[in-house]
Amino acid sequence: MKRTSFNVGWEFRPKVNQFAEVAGHTARHRPVTVPHDAMLSRGRDASEEGAGAYFRGGAYEYRKRFQVAAEDEGKRLLVEFEGVYRDAMVYVNGAYVTQCPYGYTQFRADLTPYLRYGADNEIRVEARTHQDSRWYTGAGIYRDTWLLTGGPVRIAPEGIHVTTLDVDEERAVVEVAVRVESDERVLRTVRLAVEVTDSEGRVVAQGAAPVTVEPGQCATARQRLYVREPVRWSPDRPALHTASVTLGDEEDAETVFFGIRTLRLDPDHGLRINDDPVKLRGACVHHDNGLLGAATYPRAEERRIELLKDAGFNAVRMSHQPMSRAMLEACDRLGMLVVDETFDMWTSGKSAFDYSLHFAEWWERDLEAMVAKDYNHPSVILYSIGNEIPETGSPAGAVWGRRLAEKVRALDPTRYVTNGVNTALAVMADLAAMREKEEVERTGGGGTGINTFMADPAARLAALATSELVTHKTAESFAVLDVAGMNYAEARYDIDRRLFPGRIILGTETFPTHIDRIWRLVQEHSHVIGDFTWTGWDYLGEVGIGRPRYVTPGTPQPELVAPYPHLTADCGDLDITGHRRPASYYREIVFGLRSDPYIAVRRPEHRDKRFAGTPWAWSDCISSWTWPGAEGSTVTVEVYGAGDEVEVLLNGRRQGRQPLKDFRADFEVRYEKGELLAVVYTGGVETGRYAVRTAERVRRLRAEVDRSVIAVTGGDLAFVTLTLTDEEGTCHPASDRPVRLEVTGDGVLAGFGSACPSTEERFDALDHQTYEGRALAILRPTGPGEIRLVASAQDCPVASVMVVVRDGEDARAGG
Length: 815
What we know:
Domain Glycoside hydrolase family: 701-801
Domain Glycoside hydrolase family 2 catalytic: 270-425
CATH class of the largest domain: Alpha Beta
Radius of gyration: 28 Å
Number of helices: 14
Pfam families: DUF4982, Glyco_hydro2_C5, Glyco_hydro_2, Glyco_hydro_2_C, Glyco_hydro_2_N
Strand content: 35-45%
CATH architecture of the largest domain: Alpha-Beta Barrel
CATH topology of the largest domain: TIM Barrel
Helix content: 10-25%
Shape: globular
Domain Glycoside hydrolase family 2 immunoglobulin-like beta-sandwich: 159-261
Structural class: alpha+beta
Keywords: Glycosidase, Hydrolase
Number of domains: 5
Distance between the termini: 33 Å
């Protein structure tokens, strides 16, 4: 079917009660372009839940007026919604068309029976959200929309499935299956032609055959094609092929991208892609785009994958819902492996009004939609049927797990199935009895129970994960999977090698602070295929789970969720603007991908306090040697490195030399301005160095755009990094100040903010305070031409950037 963007021309307002509207109480519609996050505009309130970053829920209404030409009568017209959060209801010309309860499922509304041809039409979409998630969801039509138009005989939406049946060095056997639909009243026979081209545009295979479709029915036509000397897709060489399908002379045509690659899995060799062993260096990521809220722009998704790959990751796990089409396409192009996930809950709810209310009725349709969307993407290697599902520790939960896993296999037998199982949650119903038994042992038998002995929550999880209770209760739920996904249960890796010799394990979620020993386990055990940290990219909601926390004697442990106005989880390797934090460089060193060391300095103002962060919280440090007011004081310097020893020098003077243990060493250094240098030695020979320098007085506001040329279409954006620096260009993280923007020309400001984890500032304002010397502005084009951004800050000359906006997707490569 012909696919046309349907993103422009929408209007939006909070939903109004019809009786109130009759009485004259109404709300005006305002024009918006989707993707659009309705929740971001509602603001925040301390009375709301920290899980959703204190944003207000609500009900929202979108409408769009559009014309359908008289000559289109007899055609099939659909609107495809890539994502509407949540409980979407779709109406055309006042008539109910369809609905979709799950906020992350792609769905289509068939407009055909309700249209007025040669006249105006109106489509209306309602969405609502309230206490239905454990993170920030956003709301409204937050992903792309498309108008699909097809003739009486056409290729069905997502009706092309490309499968590599067999591949070796000489040739690949590629099956192209095409589902053809017919609205005709008579039998129709049409010619179906397929042409495959490689990444250079060369035709490498082609075929054609007639296909006959019965009236009002569908027919699936399969062609086996043979690609000689195929270039295989892999993370290191993401070579994509194109399958162009033509139906008849002018009936329909469609193009899909795919990759030729093989997957193999066994406990002795682990995961192999094209026969090469691969360990997954994984990042869990939520779906929000930081300053854009939940609005899903292809360029924002692409940028996230670019930066995550630059940071050393080779895989992402979308947590905990199906990944956007735009991010899948970016993963294909850039060579990022994907674990795509379905649900955060099945029949047992985690929030008052979450998807568990609809799961039993809708799960099958949602699974079908996810697999149909993912099928041709070579980056997708695993489907996850859930995350931390409480039912997995029960026979009834194992029944559900088998049902979901078998459904996925029936839809796509070419990938593997996993489930992110939290072993503690799986046996939560048994823990009360377990605690009672421990208390008897402690007081009567002189023993010490697990929870009493362990003061650390991570240690408690480890002890529980290896218990006989967990082993027994989760056995069936793990057995229905191809890969046993384990959240915070790396303590099982070694014992499961003996207890379950055929079990293949993936660390689907782990503490970032444990990456050194976890990665050692991954490397030592062939049946463990990788690790996914929580999280690769910081996100809105679950506020403050990774924030630095301090306690003094006699004060209670701080709550897990931070109070208002905390905004982010504060636990990502990269912050919400895409800036790498110290944990990211440590991870890169642990992965063996960085030879130079890295310096991070703990904030001097907290030196005499006791750190009480969670296992998601990195130490309270940044990579800076600019600490006004700390002159003469002792500061703690963390040095990360891969080598035998590291030496630290301050302004050329030796401050000490220490062995590196677990890839790090800590130094106590008396602060003075200048240069702090770390040098790593391996076998007595220098193998890397890294320095940080003191920034002098702020003299400049530097503005740098990621690309100077962008496209007017295709969801393109320009990201402008704003940095406070001294005369030499060194970032000054200790002199934050407001920055004011002015945007003119053929574009608008899509978002503006910083990575500050606790703030009441908005992302849709023209003013924002820098955080640690940085802020980020995001520009969205509105037409071909130029966009000019001018930024001003106190005591700095104005900074400006110019972005050229061109027609056509080819502009995406510009800049």
